Amino acid sequence: MKTLICFPSSGSSSSLFAPWKLFFEQKNIALICPEYPARGRRFTDLPAKSIDALAQDMMHQLQDELKNNGDYHLFGHSLGGIVAYELALKIQQSPYKAPKSIFISSSHAPHKREETSLKSHLSDSELIVALKQIGGLKQEVLNHPELLELVLPIIRADLALNEHYQSQKKVPLSCPIITIHGTDDPIVKLDYLKEWKHYSEDYQHINWPGDHFYFQPDLERFLTTLVTSLEAVNKQD
Question: Which domains, from first to last, does the chain contain?
Answer without folding.
Answer: 2-113+167-236 (3.40.50.1820)
